From TrEMBL:
A GO term for molecular function: nucleotide binding
Domain Gfo/Idh/MocA-like oxidoreductase C-terminal per the UniProt entry, residue ranges: 153-399
Family designation: Belongs to the Gfo/Idh/MocA family.
InterPro entries the UniProt entry points to: Gfo/Idh/MocA-like_OxRdtase_C, Gfo/Idh/MocA-like_OxRdtase_N, Gfo/Idh/MocA_oxidoreduct, NAD(P)-bd_dom_sf
Gene3D superfamilies: Dihydrodipicolinate Reductase, domain 2, NAD(P)-binding Rossmann-like Domain
PANTHER family documented for this protein: CONSERVED EXPRESSED OXIDOREDUCTASE (EUROFUNG), OXIDOREDUCTASE
Residue ranges annotated for the Gfo/Idh/MocA-like oxidoreductase N-terminal domain, each copy included: 22-141
Protein name: Gfo/Idh/MocA family oxidoreductase
Length: 415
């Protein structure tokens, strides 16, 4: 890894200074805003180069990073020309594996947007490349920085509901028609399926809250609505999701037009999981609900908790840990409101800036992080197994385990 320390300040009064980390971003689509968040010239990090296969996207790089940003059409050109401290890989899911492995083997620290890869074997190859190259790997599971998730985890660790025995998650993807069925996401060759692509976040959170990874799954689901839409004309070349997002007019779901030419991923899925240590979990995902939010319910030996809203001023976590005399009791025993943060303060209720800050600190200093490449791999592994089960009529599938020596390498802090 490149040394980021400069000579001591004159007289040594202020101690050693550090130069800006030299960053690059591969992929200038929607989530490239993460790299924009990291561009803080003179404050510790700057984006010096950008890569995209579509030259039309270069204008965005110049707008965000200045006219001096160096632009490339291929990541190998980038590696040959630049001395970099870290690279953001913000590209379609099926490209993550190749890009990450080549960068890591070159010794460059890598931020990979979730999911880590679209197959379990692909994830393992990325992890092995990090070990071979001795490079730091970080995966963009920003939900671990969302206040509502962190609050639930803290309440669990505090013992408010006893020992966790079950985790349930319902994910209402109200904008699914706009977000996932009009571009590459709709083609399983690029994602494996939305149970993996979209579910990687929730599966990771389930594992984090339960303190255990999935061992065995069974799932059902199908392409139940969007498969009935005949308009598969797609979107204009170079367009990204905000260009066609229209929450006012694309309702009801069958009114959507301009779907991707290939639509073969499921829009409804339901998974039942057995986790390590006897914890059980379930995950439901629907892409045509009128609302867009997710609800986690965690049940322990001494109570349960739920989130109401996942970010925004109205989100809160409620805990019931006193027995009710009658039926449902709306009044919780403990209510924890979330801080008043909005997407204007950073994407996903302020979690994106926290995610980027942790990555940059990790690049510079190493040490523990709240995200985990191994956990990212386990979320993919659970999603792959669940998709296999779903497409085989619900046949139970055992989740593939990571090689112990590779798991130990990451547990030791990536070397």
């Amino acid at each position: 890894m490149t040394d980021t320390t400069l000579a001591p300040a004159p007289g040594g009064a202020e101690g050693p200074r550090t130069r800006d980390l030299r960053l690059a971003v591969i992929g200038l689509g929607l989530r490239a805003t993460l790299a924009r968040e990291a561009h803080r010239p003179g404050q510790g990090s700057r984006v010096v180069a950008a890569v995209d296969t579509a030259p039309a996207m270069f204008a965005r790089a110049r707008e965000w990073f200045g006219d001096g940003v160096r632009l490339y059409g291929d990541h190998r050109e980038l590696l040959e020309a630049e001395e970099l401290d870290a690279v953001f890989v913000i590209t379609p899911d099926h490209t993550h594996e190749q890009l990450a492995t080549e960068l890591l083997r070159a010794g460059v620290a890598v931020f990979v947007e979730k999911p880590l890869a679209i197959t379990t074997e692909g994830c393992d190859r990325v992890l092995e490349a990090a070990r071979e190259g001795g490079a730091r790997l970080y995966v963009g599971h920003n939900m671990r920085h969302m206040p509502v998730v962190r609050t639930m985890r803290e309440l669990i660790r505090r013992g408010e509901i006893g020992e966790v025995k079950a985790v349930w998650c319902r994910h209402f993807v109200g904008h699914g028609g706009d977000f996932y069925f009009k571009d590459w996401h709709a083609d399983r060759r690029n994602t494996t399926g939305l149970l993996l692509q979209k579910g990687a976040h929730d599966l990771d959170v389930i594992h984090w809250l339960a303190g255990a990874y999935t061992e065995r799954v069974t799932a059902l689901g199908g392409l139940t609505v969007y498969g009935d839409i005949d308009d598969r004309s797609g979107q204009a070349p170079g367009a990204v999701m905000p260009d066609w997002y229209d929450p006012e007019n694309n309702w009801p779901p069958l009114a959507n037009t301009g779907l991707n030419p290939v639509v073969d991923v499921e829009d409804l899925s339901m998974v039942v999981m057995r986790l390590e240590g006897g914890v059980h979990a379930s995950y439901q995902q629907c892409h045509y609900t009128p609302d867009y939010w997710r609800n986690y319910t965690v049940i322990g030996t001494e109570g349960r908790l739920e989130n109401f809203g996942d970010h925004g001023e109205s989100a809160e976590v409620r805990v019931w840990n006193r027995r009710s005399r009658e039926g449902y009791r709306a009044e919780a025993d403990l209510v924890v409101p979330m801080p008043s943060r909005s997407d204007e303060e950073g994407g996903h209720g302020g979690s994106d800036p926290l995610l980027v800050a942790e990555f940059l600190r990790f690049v510079r200093e190493g040490g523990a992080t709240d995200t985990s490449p191994v956990a990212a791999r386990e979320a993919v592994a659970a999603g792959v197994a669940a998709t296999e089960s779903l497409r085989d009529g619900g046949t139970p599938v055992t989740v593939s385990r990571l090689a112990p020596e590779l798991a130990r390498w990451f547990a030791d802090g990536q070397g």
